[in-house]
Specification:
The chain has 340 residues and is an alpha+beta fold. The protein has helices at 11-20, 28-56, 72-86, 221-231, 249-259, 278-291, 322-334, and strands at residues 90-95, 102-103, 111-119, 130-138, 161-167, 171-176, 181-187, 192-197, 208-210, 242-243, 262-265, 295-297, 317-320. The protein folds into two domains: 11-197, Fructose-1,6-Bisphosphatase, subunit A, domain 1 (Fructose-1,6-Bisphosphatase, Chain A, domain 1, 2-Layer Sandwich), CATH 3.30.540; 208-335, D-Maltodextrin-Binding Protein, domain 2 (3-Layer(aba) Sandwich). It is built from seven helices and 13 strands. The strands form two sheets. Strands 2-1-3-4-5-6-7-8 form an eight-stranded mixed beta sheet, with helices on both faces. The chain starts with 10 loop residues before the first helix and ends in a 6-residue tail after the last helix. Bound molecules: 2,5-anhydro-1,6-di-O-phosphono-D-glucitol and manganese (II) ion (2 copies). One manganese (II) ion (MN) binds at residues 73, 96, 116, 118-119, 121.
């Protein structure tokens, strides 16, 4: 259930209106969100052109004009970082595309931003939805000019804002600053994100499960049993549930937000720590899902309470509607298959 807006509001207007509700606000976070919105429009344009680009030259090669064609995830990384650098509010970026921290020009900036510039990038070639994910923290060492990596190792509960832009059948931006979830749809004809849903509330229970079932044989017994339970008929709880797996976490979680259900990326023999990244995939999407009334856990701990040890660390994740997550936890706990 969501609140549909009754009048046309652009992303920039909405951000300013929200900021005006806080008399002491400096406007810096608002600026940061607008910067991300601008980069997202540029990335969206490029994603939509990707098919044409590949006609004119493959990534890493030269197109017929003799220009080199960049990989789209590197393009997205550069656009987001340069948008954040421009307004001198962000001191450091951590991105999937960079092994170490990226120090920006404003070492006095008070925000730290984590990015998955393009999530699901293996889906680009097949025209399937992909997205950009962001997660924003306040730096702790406010007056130290030498920003260091440990400043960025904060648990997800300290996020001041998080969100994603999904380049799907339309481009939408979804974000939270901890006061509910808002969604904006890009109207390409005017180049503006328009408010499409305010105060997003996700279903408490859903009938879709989302997991890479090809890895079935490498899961623990509890999870195997849970998936069999999802497939068993039971009219009251709407089983058998439907299986849906896009292979872009951002798109799978967006569907889960709208329709309810559960998305799982567990630990397995191949990925004992899980595959997905705590800081720029799991935390921001958990913040969104929790703000919409859902739950996100690694099997025995709330995702947003995990104290990170490294900027690129991974975690198993069970995320979605409250009742579905409770269901799977019952199974994996009884089998003691929880991560330590
Ligand atoms: P990325 O493209 O940023 O590297 O992320 C891909 C991730 C995630 O989006 C998706 O849920 C997962 O990889 C899919 O992994 P499997 O192919 O192992 O299912
Ligand atoms: Mn990713
Ligand atoms: Mn990525």
């Amino acid at each position: 259930m969501t609140n549909k807006p009754t009048k046309l509001v652009t992303l920039d207007e909405y951000i300013i209106q929200s900021q005006n509700r806080f008399p002491g606000a400096t406007g810096e976070l608002s600026q940061l969100l607008r910067d991300i919105g601008l980069a997202a429009k540029i990335i969206s344009r490029e994603v939509n052109k990707a098919g044409i680009t590949s006609l004119l030259g493959v990534d890493g090669s030269r197109n017929i004009h003799g220009e080199s064609v960049k990989k789209l995830d590197l393009f997205a990384d550069q656009q987001l970082i340069s948008a954040l650098d421009r307004s001198l509010i962000t001191c450091m970026v951590i991105s999937e595309e960079n092994d170490g921290i990226v120090r920006l020009n404003s070492q006095g900036g008070k925000y730290i931003v984590y990015l998955d510039p393009l999530d699901g990038s293996s889906n680009i070639d097949v025209n399937v939805s992909i997205g950009s994910i962001f997660s924003i923290y306040m730096r702790q060492s406010r007056f130290d000019p030498n920003i260091v990596e440990s400043d960025a190792l904060q648990p997800g509960i300290r996020q001041v804002a998080a969100g994603y832009v999904l380049y799907g059948s339309s481009t939408i931006m979804v974000y939270t600053t901890g006061m509910g979830v808002s969604a904006f749809t890009l109207d390409p004809s005017i180049g503006e994100f328009i408010l499409s849903d305010d105060d997003f509330e996700m279903p408490d229970h859903g009938t879709i499960y989302s997991i890479n079932e090809g890895s079935y044989n490498s899961w623990g017994n509890g999870l195997k049993k849970y998936i069999k339970y999802c497939q068993l008929e039971d009219q009251e709880s709407g089983r058998p549930y439907s299986a849906r797996y896009i292979g872009s976490m951002v798109a799978d979680v967006h569907r889960t937000l709208v329709k309810g259900g559960i998305f799982i990326y567990p630990s397995s023999k191949r990925y004992p720590e899980g595959k997905l990244r705590l800081m720029y995939e799991c935390n921001p999407l958990s913040f969104i899902i929790e703000q919409a009334g859902g739950v996100a856990t690694n099997g025995n701990k709330r995702i947003m309470e995990i104290q990170p040890d490294a900027i690129h660390e991974r975690t198993p994740i069970y995320i979605g509607s409250r009742k579905n997550v409770e269901e799977v936890i019952r199974f994996i706990t009884e089998e003691a298959e929880v991560p330590v």
